[in-house]
Every structure is written in structure tokens, then in C-alpha cells.
Amino acid sequence: MKYDREQVMRIIPQRDPILLIDSVEELDPGNSITATFFVHPDMAIFQGHFPGNPILPGVYTVESAAQATSLLFLSLDRYSGKLPLFCGIDNVRFLRKIKPGDTITLKGSLLSENTEKAIVKSHVEVFNGDEKAALVDVTLAIR
After folding, report:
1. Which segments cross the bilayer (predicted)?
2. Which sequence spans correspond to the domains of the chain?
């Protein structure tokens, strides 16, 4: 399955300026996802992080991983239309800078799902081009 930005917004609740997924290139609902985000040079965050040497803040990278995780699970009928709430992040590693004009690719996969409690966990690898830029395990409660 492939989704453009409009289709992404039909699944997850985030909107600009915090919508950090532009497209879904591959999706196996509940199992794996490959999504992309273009780091637009005009993002307001770059005015302060850092003037003259702009770098995407790590929290934005983590949020994009959470949004990929949301898409991974909200695409399942049992969670469709629900609200994904951040429960935790584990094993976060930042390996490469992400700069304005870069396109990141997020590759997420299921780590665990507790259907009774609607708690899901994924492992997301964030790539900047061919280089791994970050790793993060995301836990969401779906309400």
C-alpha cells in the first residue's frame, strides 16, 4: 500500500506544523512500514536550532518515528479512527545529522502488541539517504 500526504492525514490526527510524514511507500498493516518526510528548509524550528548551522532537533526525529508507528497500527481496522498516545521511547540513538533539505526514510516494524490493552510497540530505523541517522523504539497507547 502507498499513501500520499492527504491519505496520511486521513489515518493519523497530526497536522501542520507537526505533521512529519509526507508519504508511505510500503505498508503491511500491523507489521511493517516505510514512510518518508522532506525536511523543509523553511520550518520555523531552524530559526533557533541552530542559527547558521541548522539541524533537525532529535525530538522531531522521534516524533516522526511515533507518527510512522501510528500509521502502522491505525491502518488496522481495530484501531482505525483512534487516538495514538505516546507512552514511551526506548533505545534511542542519534547517529547522523538531519539538515534542512534532507529527506528521511522511516522503516518501522512491530516489536509487540497487547490487543487487550491497546498498547503497541515498534522499532523504527531512520535513514538520511543511505545512512542510518537514528534508531528508536516507540510505545503507543491507542485510545
Report:
1. none
2. 5-142
Would you please indicate which residues are annotated as catalytic (active-site) residues? 49
The CATH-assigned architecture of domain 5-142 is Roll (3.10)
What is the dihedral sign for C-alpha 17, 50, 88, 133?
positive
Per-residue pLDDT of the chain (143 residues; tens, 9 = 90+): 899 999 999 999 999 999 999 999 999 999 999 999 999 999 999 999 999 999 999 999 999 999 999 999 999 999 999 999 999 999 999 999 999 999 999 999 999 999 999 999 999 999 999 999 999 999 999 99
